[in-house]
Specification:
Length: 195
């Protein structure tokens, strides 16, 4: 990305919701900012704070917001859905004595819902999940992947393709892919310092 991009999260400090943003510049430098919920002052993060507040009234869980330099905002939400392997097909193979479930083709055929980063479009929204790294993976998949939704706020274009490189990293979760862009990890670390 060759423009400033801001990543925002909500946290609770002293039983009060607070909103923090990390603005990343094209040269890799960044700034941390806090935005208060206020009715009297409008600025670049006012809509982002309102997204978090509006989600509460709709019982939605917003994991983060992304705002580009043109003011276009994408919202990452939990869907409450998880991925599952093709259990019935695996069971059918095992029932007939086929225990050869290893190998790249078999992994992709039966465990694709638990591997790598996958994305699909539905009703103008993008859904994605981040599973276990597929190549050279351990044969134990410890948990299902949560399905997240990426929505454009007020018709903003979806930025998933631009965000993918920030999730296809393994330094955030000890050798595994990260579910949110890694900049959210930096925001969470910053919050540990100020809390």
């Amino acid at each position: 990305m060759l423009e400033d991009v801001s990543f925002g999260i909500e946290t609770e400090i002293d039983e009060q919701s607070r909103y923090f943003f990390m603005q990343v510049h094209p040269d890799g430098s960044f700034e941390m900012k806090e935005q208060e919920l206020t009715l009297f002052e409008m600025n670049e993060y006012t809509d982002c704070v309102n997204i978090f507040e509006d989600a509460k009234t709709r019982c939605e869980t917003v994991k983060g917001v992304i705002r580009d330099s043109q003011g276009r905002i994408n919202v990452i939400k939990d869907t409450g859905f998880i991925t599952l392997p093709e259990a019935s097909e695996i069971k059918a193979l095992l029932d007939v004595g086929d225990t050869k479930l290893r190998g790249k083709e078999r992994r992709e055929e039966f465990l694709s819902s638990c591997l790598n980063i996958k994305m699909f479009d539905e009703n103008g929204k993008q859904y994605y999940f981040v599973g276990t790294i597929g190549e050279g993976m351990r044969w134990n998949i410890p948990r299902a992947a949560n399905i997240r939704c990426l929505e454009g706020y007020e018709g903003a274009p979806l930025l998933f393709d631009k965000l993918l490189p920030t999730m296809n990293v393994s330094f955030v979760h000890n050798g595994q892919l990260t579910v949110l862009p890694f900049t959210f990890k930096y925001l969470r670390e910053y919050l540990k310092i100020i809390k």
